[in-house]
Amino acid sequence: MYMLxxxxxxxxxxxxxxxxxxxxxxxxxxxxxxxRRQFASxxxxxxxxxxxDGIDIDWEYPADEVQATNMVLLLKAVxxxxxxxxxxxxxxxxxxxxxxxxxxxxxxxxxxxxxxxxLLDLVNLMAYDYAGDWSPFSGHNANLYPNPQNxxxxxxxxxxxxxxxxxxxxxxxxxxxxxxxxGRSFQKTAGIGKPYSGVxxxxxxxxxxxxxxxxxxxxxxxxxxxxxxxxxYDNATQELISFDTPSAVAAKVSYLGKLGLGGSMFxxxxxxxxxxxxxxxxxxxxxxxxxxxxxxxEYPDSRYANMRRGMS
Length: 312
Hints:
The protein is an alpha/beta fold. The protein has one domain (2-179, 245-308): TIM Barrel. It contains ten helices and eleven strands. The strands form two sheets. It has a six-stranded parallel sheet. Strands 7-6-10-9-8 form a five-stranded antiparallel sheet, with no helix packed on it. The two termini are 14 Å apart. The mean pLDDT is 98.
């Protein structure tokens, strides 16, 4: 990772903490000044020891006003710790602070968006998982727009979330649209927005398939032009899989460009295809380049000698 940063000075690597599995620990970590300071200190220790460029907090999700307030306080503590480290060991450098942000209104309406907009460098909108095994109908995984003609297929949409975040106080340049490199499946269904029976197996989790294996043999790819979403359907097996294609990514990149948003992010790269069908490459080609600011390479107080020496 460090050698990649040395070779490509605009590549920055943040440490992401939390995620769906571990988010239940955040409420306690953020609950007092003492625990927030301890969390911040520990997080920044990872930055200096392993050569990261920032911290990403993936809290899924603050459950109420108290937790939303404590989330802001936790992020402030991390920001202060990052700045203190920079002042001592990386003068003039700004370490990144970001969050993974929900796209569902029941979750983001609890957040203090204006304060987050002032505090954070990036807000990575998790604009996916709009439908799955919890849904009453088969649906789109990551549609850009609603579809009034098929409401069951599009219970959520990225455009609505983007507008709410911007109205709530997140600056355009800080808002990043997340895109999935996987599909969500529905079994024994007559089509999109229809009842289904189970989600089947998956690449690494039931009902979830890496994009690099899609569409499956025998399935055809269909386009919901209103919702701007794609899915495959196998008439023989009645399996439907909703996933992003290069065309879907191109439409989203065009959308974020027109709004002046900060860019795109993907979950997650190992599921991508190569060449012209790569979703990441499609986004990069449309955007033109990665962020051009330089990463950080000097970590003089790392606990590891090779990191202190810059891997030389």
